[in-house]
Amino acid sequence: MSARVKICGVSTPAALDAAIGAGADYVGLNFYPPSPRYVSAQVAASLAARAAKHIPTVGVFVDAGDDFLADAIAAGQLDAIQLHGHEPPERAAQLRSRFGLPVWKVLSVAGPEDIASAAAYRDTADFLLFDAKTPAGSALPGGMGLTFDWGLLAAYKGPLPWGLAGGVTPANVADAIAMTGAPLVDVSSGVESAPGIKDVDRIAAFCKAAQHI
């Protein structure tokens, strides 16, 4: 089985073009300032113009305020909002109502209880993304190349469409999909040569591995 692909943390025209050329289904624009993949409103606007009509853009946010979100959504011409912080179901519902965009909620996973927490977002989010939980005190909530026990998702039948993130690479994405049945895989550091620096060849290899199983 193949999976849809999201290339997250795209910050340059070359990376965007590589994602489009490789047949990725989404690109993620990171609006979290501490991240090495952060894009300013100006950069996001330039990338959005380049992505228009070619690939949907998903904005990545961490516990962001409404005004910050509004500016980023406008600049990036976003097709969806990805919440990667501690946003509760009520916040997801509020943002979906205010901005009229699909809300993707990232759930940080260390054990089965984290998978079970997906049920709380049944009526407030549109898509769930299971990512590896980062160590306590980490500056970033994701994008660190960490994995979790994919076996936790082997029999997952949740309330919403979902995807897998966290430590997937061109080398292991086929195994990840086979083990979990993930209908979408999200990659960031796994297609980079250094933090925040996307590698066009790795993007192509990842998409080929995920989409041609």
Automatic annotation (TrEMBL):
One Pfam family in the UniProt entry: PRAI
Keyword Secreted: no
Catalytic activity: N-(5-phospho-beta-D-ribosyl)anthranilate = 1-(2-carboxyphenylamino)-1-deoxy-D-ribulose 5-phosphate
EC number from the UniProt entry: 5.3.1.24
Pathway participation: Amino-acid biosynthesis; L-tryptophan biosynthesis; L-tryptophan from chorismate: step 3/5
Coiled-coil region(s): none
A single GO molecular function term of this UniProt record: phosphoribosylanthranilate isomerase activity
Record's keyword terms, sorted: Amino-acid biosynthesis, Aromatic amino acid biosynthesis, Isomerase, Tryptophan biosynthesis
Signal peptide: none
Enzyme class: isomerase
InterPro entries (UniProt xref): Aldolase_TIM, PRAI_dom, RibuloseP-bd_barrel, TrpF_fam
Top-level taxon in the UniProt lineage: Bacteria
Keyword Ion transport belongs to the record: no
Gene Ontology biological-process entries: L-tryptophan biosynthetic process
The N-(5'phosphoribosyl) anthranilate isomerase (PRAI) domain, residue ranges: 5-208
Record PANTHER family: N-(5'-PHOSPHORIBOSYL)ANTHRANILATE ISOMERASE
Family listed: Belongs to the TrpF family.
HAMAP family: PRAI
Protein name according to UniProt: N-(5'-phosphoribosyl)anthranilate isomerase
Species this chain originates from: Allopontixanthobacter confluentis
The gene coding this protein: trpF
